[in-house]
Design goal:
Elements: H1 6-12, E1 18-20, H2 25-37, E2 42-46, H3 48-51, E3 63-67, E4 73-86, H4 92-97, H5 104-117, E5 126-137
Parallel strand pairs: 1-3
Antiparallel strand pairs: 2-5, 3-4, 4-5
Length: 139
């Protein structure tokens, strides 16, 4: 079967949003490998990304397309849970589901650096926390 183009995927799933994991090609590739292996079944982002209109807020049941860094389709995921919590209320169980951190302290260090790099870190900042499952792998 021929590989589907991003346009064909979006045409067949008009509600789908597209996004990239991470903020660099290397991180995107690392995270996609964790998603494909099943080690990563959750993610989080600053709630302000959604409330300021930059991205569509995840919705339970919606299927979205995670892109490779070059913009080609990587995987389709389906959102199975969306919650919000403060950065300083993150727990070890959710960080483990993110698949890329040694422990909660490693998560705090990595995400505080990530949010600081993007000019939005505060210990009491609100996060969108999403759990998902892979529906299709386009590799």
């Amino acid at each position: 079967m021929a590989k589907q183009t991003l346009q064909q995927i979006i045409d067949a799933n008009p509600e789908a949003e597209t996004f990239r994991f991470g903020d660099s090609a290397a991180l995107c590739n690392q995270i996609l490998a964790l998603v494909r292996s099943g080690a990563k079944t959750a993610t989080c982002e600053a709630l302000s990304v959604y409330t300021e209109g930059e991205d569509a807020y995840p919705e339970v049941g919606r299927r979205d397309v995670a892109l490779n860094w070059d913009g080609t389709p990587a995987v389709m995921i389906e959102t199975i849970e969306v919650t919000t919590r403060r950065f300083d209320e993150m727990d070890a169980e959710f960080t483990a589901a993110q698949g890329q951190f040694r422990d909660l302290e490693d998560w705090r260090k990595s995400y505080s650096a990530y949010f600081s790099k993007h000019g939005q870190f505060a210990p009491d900042m609100m996060l969108m926390c999403e759990r998902f499952r892979v529906v299709e792998d386009y590799a």
